[in-house]
């Protein structure tokens, strides 16, 4: 499986431990300030994308010294930098999975733009390849069908988030089950849990976001 990672410029304190420790395998695309973070970790991204308006001149020069393929956009544009990065990842690098880090914290408008990207017609068919990952959450996306997912060892909670109306949603073996449920509006069916190591669900129409999550350990 060819995995391509994207690092957006969200707060470092929300990074998962594996990212902080440099244990994420695969190539990278850097999004705006995410490029600086990668360079600091000794990683030169395949592509740097962004308007770079938040970078100081010396920071932008550092990016140019480390990365050969730089796609500098203008600040006044229709696409966000993350959308531009996703477009390059899909159309040019043909990854089997796209893991996006740094895309969930900080400004809420940025997070919602990142979450809703999968509803755009140009990205929708690639939704099952995309994951948004941070310190507490792994967010995956599904199109109509029947699925079995595996519990992440460090996660307790399981949420089924209908990004659109959905038909015939069934949760087979989770702690809180549903049978042939008609979802009439976007809704987060939060705080469900795995019973075993896997969970099965199906639905007939719409776009599903599934979140495995955990609480913050406030004693560390």
From TrEMBL:
Residue ranges annotated for the Thiamin pyrophosphokinase thiamin-binding domain, each copy included: 145-208
NCBIfam families assigned: thi_PPkinase
Membrane-spanning parts: none
EC number: 2.7.6.2
Chain coiled-coil ranges: none
Species: Lentilactobacillus farraginis DSM 18382 = JCM 14108
GO terms of molecular function: ATP binding; kinase activity; thiamine binding; thiamine diphosphokinase activity
Enzyme class: transferase
One GO term of the biological process aspect: thiamine diphosphate biosynthetic process
Pfam short name (any one): TPK_B1_binding
Protein name: Thiamine diphosphokinase
């Amino acid at each position: 499986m060819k995995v391509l990672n994207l690092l957006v410029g969200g707060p470092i304190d929300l990074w998962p431990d594996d990212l902080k420790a440099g244990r994420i395998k695969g190539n990278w695309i850097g999004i705006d300030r995410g490029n600086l973070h990668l360079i600091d970790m000794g990683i030169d991204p395949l592509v740097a994308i962004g308007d770079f308006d938040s970078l100081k001149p010396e920071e932008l020069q550092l990016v140019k010294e480390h990365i050969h393929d730089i796609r500098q956009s203008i600040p006044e544009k229709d696409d966000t930098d993350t959308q531009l990065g996703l477009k390059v990842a899909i159309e040019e690098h043909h990854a089997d999975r796209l893991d996006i880090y740094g895309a969930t914290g900080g400004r809420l408008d940025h997070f919602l733009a990142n979450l809703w990207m999968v509803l755009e017609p140009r990205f929708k068919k690639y939704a099952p390849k995309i994951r948004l990952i941070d310190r507490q959450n792994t967010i995956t996306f599904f199109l109509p069908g029947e699925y079995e997912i595996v519990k992440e060892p460090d996660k307790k909670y399981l949420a089924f988030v209908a990004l659109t109306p959905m038909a015939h949603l069934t949760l087979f073996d989770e702690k809180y089950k549903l049978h042939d449920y008609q979802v009439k509006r976007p809704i987060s069916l939060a705080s469900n849990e795995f019973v075993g190591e896997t969970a099965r669900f199906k639905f007939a129409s719409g776009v599903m976001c599934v979140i495995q999550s955990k609480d913050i350990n406030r004693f560390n």
